[in-house]
Amino acid sequence: MPSSQSSSTSSSISSPPISSPISFGELGLCIELVTTVTEKGYASASPIQQHAIPTVLNGRDVIAIAQTGTGKTASFSLPILQLLANTSPAKPNCIKALIVAPTRELAAQVAKNVESYSEGMNIRSTAVFGGVRIEPQKFELAQGLDILIATPGRLVDLYKQGDINFEHIEMLVLDEADRMLDLGFVEHIHFIQSLLPKQRQTLLFSATFSKEIKALAATMLNKPVTIELATAHDHIENITQILHPVDKERKHELVIHLLKSNDWSQVLVFTRTKRGADELRNELEAMGIAAESIHANRTQHARTQALDGFRDGSLKVLIGTDLAARGIDIQQLPCVINVDLPFVPEDYIHRIGRTGRASSKGLAISLYSDDETKQLRSIERLTGRQFKKTFISEFTPKPKPPAVKKDKIEENLYGNFEAFDKPSGKKKSKGRKKRR
Predict the structure, then answer these.
(1) What CATH number should be reported for the domain whose range is 234-395?
(2) Assigned fold of 13-230
(3) Angle in degrees, 0-180, between the axes of helices 345-352 and 373-383, rounded to the nearest 10
């Protein structure tokens, strides 16, 4: 197993995309895994899978820059399953492979995929995250696990309570590493790293390759193979992006209009605030539209129910904050609506990346009010495109009032300091009487 200590002589290999289809059997996977993925409808490996799977099987550390919807979960979970398939059972409270994910939803989704891929294999896996009782998670850990999927906060809590032994970890995966940094988990990551064996294989997956990600990788990986297949701009080429100008106070009304005017099977809607998500949900339900909200203030049970309803199709509209942007894996989602433009332009990419997955066509609609000019410019710089504003006649924004000159505003605010009438003659002071 390679050492994942940082090294000043570490090398990096940039891999170009592979154009021709390749089957999973050509990647070195065992027959059991090939049969499983074939039965689940995977005809051929995606570009990130074509590069990552053989590299992981060869024991190399990996930095993979992959956008959402490219099949990255299978690109690390399948080779990990194969490497662990014929090993001895994990000891109590010990784990062999640790996958760290930034959100509960993503951790649950990865755990579901790992469980699905490992059918028929003697692999024990589970997910641990906050918002639910910790006792069942402790029980699972006490049995020993081959693969643990965890959010940083709950992982640290379980360690501090003496429920996890990191001494036997062979593989570490940081999934959506850029999102973990965005959410402020960098100290958790470094703390977890300090507890792990230096001899291990480390895989880092990220949607962006920022200087912060490069700095993190330099401290955690050893001579990694870098796989960078697509930029954010490349990934959204198959997504039609539309910008509708509208007055801020009429955004919810426009969402309802769009839902009634189009025959979308399902729609994922993003709002900037948790309160906004709940208010829109209530308005849609009042109109007879099956909708639910998902954000940090909702219980984990409510969030799980909402996601399950959206996945099985019983829920038409799911409304969330950016917390929901990663971890929602819905194939053939026809449309994403941004009620508010995000302050972080990369979040725009993650939001609209929920549609147009696996080379299918997608639609992303953004509602734009005149107080969001700064956000729009940032998104345009990131995506390398200028948005054409598409007006809907009955929702055309009201014209702005004419600008008033600054000096005129000040005069109106403070008035004229000159006296209107000069006093005539002398008047006695009304001050204190002269003391006798």
Answers:
(1) 3.40.50.300
(2) Rossmann fold (3.40.50)
(3) 70
